[in-house]
Amino acid sequence: QVQLVQSRAEVKKPGASVKISCKSSGYTFTDFTVHWVRQAPGQSLEWMGWITAGNGIGESSQKLQDRVTITRDTSVTTDYVELSSLTSEDTAVYYCARGYSTGWLEFDYWGPGTLITVSS
Amino acid sequence: DIQLTQSPSFLSASVGDRVTITCRASQGISSFLAWYQQRPGKAPQLLIYGASTLQRGVPSRFSGSGSGTQFTLTISSLQPEDFATYYCQQLNSYPRTFGQGTKLNIK
């Protein structure tokens, strides 16, 4: 069965960086995209970026592009998102989600989320 | 960026009620719209994609319709497990965007 397993919660200080992992299993890894979505406490969902199927090129939203790096290690079927220069506004649950690269492009499986708390 | 506006933001209803949530896009997105359900402390779950296609395993009381800029999610007869927050998402262009959410509470 399809599973996305994410790394554990972390507490970071302002100005630090964090790298979150998302290990996929149960499907052909390179046939699907993976997207990163975050959710601040009590807020809606914010799309951060994605990594393409096949060649595994990462792209981030314009809002976060200066601070976000999205990468993939196909050998261990794992995707990563790294966020730098953290502030309290980055406190959120971070989700990875599998996306279709054809058809209606929906996100059909999601990881359980990784809570990142930014606090001095 | 394409903005998605959901209405209402909050909805109180009873078990057995029929409810409808609306999502309006700031520009046309064809049928590239998905609906997700999120329960507290959990990841979103896909309900509907392509505006009207029910995801495998989702109960048939959920249905979606619309195209272009106006979309609806309907739950035909509310069950206790349906009280959650619902989000629409556009998949027509980048950045992918979500609506602000509709929280469905028990009346």
Describe what this molecule looks like in 3D.
The complex is a heterodimer of chains A (120) and B (107). With 120 residues, chain A is mostly beta strands. Chain A is 0% helix and 50% strand. Chain A is built from no helices and 11 strands. In chain A, strand 4 (33-39) and strand 5 form a beta hairpin. Chain B has strands at residues 4-7, 10-13, 19-25, 33-38, 45-49, 53-54, 62-67, 70-75, 85-90, 97-98, 102-106. In chain B, a hairpin with a 2-residue loop joins strand 7 (62-67) and strand 8 (70-75). Chain B is globular. Chain B starts with a strand and ends with a strand. The mean pLDDT of chain B is 97. Classes of the chains: A mainly beta (120), B mainly beta (107). The A-B interface holds A 35, 37, 44-47, 50, 59, 61-63, 95, 97, 103-108, 110-113 and B 31-32, 34, 36, 42-46, 49-50, 53, 55, 87, 89, 91, 94-101.
Secondary structure layout:
The complex is a heterodimer of chains A (120) and B (107).
Chain A: E1 3-6, E2 10-12, E3 18-25, E4 33-39, E5 46-51, E6 58-60, E7 68-73, E8 78-83, E9 92-99, E10 107-110, E11 114-118
Chain B: E1 4-7, E2 10-13, E3 19-25, E4 33-38, E5 45-49, E6 53-54, E7 62-67, E8 70-75, E9 85-90, E10 97-98, E11 102-106
Parallel strand pairs in B: 2-11
Antiparallel strand pairs in B: 1-3, 3-8, 4-5, 4-9, 5-6, 7-8, 9-10, 9-11
Would you kindly provide a brief summary of this structure?
Chain A has no helices and 11 strands. By secondary structure, chain A is an all-beta fold.
Main sheet properties of chain A: 7 strands, mixed
Strand content of chain B is: over 45%
H and E string of chain B: EEEEEEEEEEE
> Separation of termini of chain B?
36 Å
Number of alpha- plus pi-helical segments of chain B: 0
Pair with the most extensive interface?
A-B, 23 and 24 residues
Which tags fit this structure?
heterodimer, A: 120 residues, mainly beta, seven-stranded mixed beta sheet, four-stranded antiparallel beta sheet, 11 strands, B: 107 residues
